[in-house]
Write a structure and sequence with these properties.
about 425 residues; alpha/beta; eight-stranded mixed sheet; 14 helices; about 45% helix; disordered C terminus; binds pyridoxal-5'-phosphate
Length: about 425
């Protein structure tokens, strides 16, 4: 296990005056004290249960809520196929624990969610990154990677994908590619780990069926898809509540893994979520959040267009929390970060989203947590820092050309 050097820098980001586009935070300020007080009051009526240990797989009530939430995303979930976790993050860890032996491989998007790489790393797999374009992971390259792994005798255990408004790129996997991934999973006998924290945070375009929904539609059940959901982005990450939906054989193993990890997730927060999702208009809250994020995403995209040098490119998310920017190949976003922080703006360098050191000239920018005016200022500052780097490079090139021609002159003189 190793800690990224950038993580230590991130610790400075609470300094006043810094515009942090680095976090991955939903805006929990939108929830409000009154609504929070009401659900706390409801839970207090059954304080003994809220304060008690609970079943490892989760309370029955919350599983009903999860079935409803999945239905709202177009999936027919069964209560007995639902397993409650301490955030989707624990789902990632438990799936790693159950499926991965040292030297096995995971096929995933390149770049991918750094927290997943971190969770899997403890089980020492090889990470096979599949490049993405605007429509997400490229299935033909996935096939090539699988064929190559097969020839080398490497056991690929699952495909990990974040299909909607991916963290870190904001890119969405096209529907035909979702079908294609299912076919690939069938052909190569793989599980698909579908991690979908952002699916409901769509502020533009048409909703797409999840891979789990497509599997239900085509195969009549959930066989290969292990689906991860979470309340972090539709409610609040502070409750640390997520879930896995999968076939019972897999859930049984996850249950054993979870017993060794934390026995059970918090009854208190399961009951808070139950109270809110049962009685309040949770869909209305999600709409409020997406309206807020749309405004901020627009502010970010507009200011990128206004301020960035033309050599910089970025993604155009239809939902979620992130934009991914690609700088000229010679600009190292990791080594540029201290300079950006000194100028009062922060981002996450792209390198951490790859297992093998790619993505150095990329960065993840978060728009969900900062007000539009600050986003604009942050992008303006960032573009100045990038220009500085680019100019430095031009100066160095000019100097080396000059040096080169001088020494050529010197040679002839001699
Ligand atoms: C793709 C992805 N998966 C999982 C998680 C972890 O979420 P949770 O808060 O449910 O543990 C995150 C958090 O940002 C994420 O972006």
């Amino acid at each position: 296990m190793k800690s990224a050097a950038t993580r230590d820098l991130m610790a400075t980001l609470s300094r006043p005056g810094i515009i942090s586009l680095a976090g991955g935070f939903p805006d929990t300020r939108a929830f409000g004290e009154e609504a929070f007080r009401e659900i706390s009051h409801n839970v207090a009526a059954d304080s003994a249960q809220a304060l008690q240990y609970g079943p490892t797989a989760g309370l029955e009530g919350i599983k009903d809520i999860i079935v409803d939430v999945m239905a709202a995303e177009g999936m027919r979930a069964n209560q007995e196929d639902v397993f409650v976790t301490t955030g989707a993050q624990q789902g990632l860890d438990l799936v790693g624990k159950v499926f991965l032996d040292e030297g096995d491989a995971v096929l995933c998007e390149g770049p991918t969610y750094a927290g997943a790489l971190n969770a899997f790393a403890a089980y020492r797999p090889r990470i096979l990154h599949v490049p993405m374009d605007r429509a997400g992971m490229m299935p033909n390259v996935a096939r090539e990677a699988l064929n190559k792994a097969r020839k080398q005798g490497i056991h690929v255990k699952f495909i990990y994908t974040v299909p909607n408004f991916q963290n870190p790129t904001g890119v969405t996997l096209a529907v035909e590619r979702r079908h294609e991934l299912l076919k690939i999973a069938e052909e190569y006998d793989l599980v698909i780990l579908e991690d979908n924290p952002y699916g409901m945070l769509r502020f533009e375009g048409e909703s797409l069926p999840t891979i789990a929904a497509l599997e239900q539609e085509t195969a009549g059940g959930t066989d290969r898809v292990v689906y991860l959901g979470t309340f972090s982005k539709i409610f609040a990450p502070g409750v640390r509540l997520g879930w896995v939906h999968a076939q019972p054989g897999i859930l049984h193993k996850l249950n054993i893994g979870k017993q060794g990890a934390d026995l059970c997730s918090s009854n208190l927060t399961q009951m808070m979520i139950y109270s809110y999702f049962k009685h309040a208009n949770w869909g209305g809250y999600v709409t409020r959040l997406t309206t807020l994020y749309k405004e901020r995403s627009d502010a970010m995209l507009d200011s990128l267009a206004e301020f960035m040098p033309k050599e910089v490119h970025w993604t155009h998310p239809e939902g979620g929390l992130f934009v991914w920017a690609t700088l000229p190949s010679y600009v190292d976003a990791t080594s540029m970060l201290p300079r950006a922080i000194a100028r009062n703006v922060a981002y996450v360098p792209g390198e951490g989203f790859y297992a093998g050191g790619s993505g150095k000239n990329c960065m993840r920018l978060n728009f969900s947590f900062v007000e539009p005016g600050k986003i604009r200022r942050g992008i303006e500052l960032l573009s100045e820092v990038i220009r500085e780097r680019m100019e430095l490079r031009s100066d160095m090139e000019r100097a080396s050309q000059l040096g080169g021609s001088r020494s050529a002159v010197g040679n002839t003189e001699r």
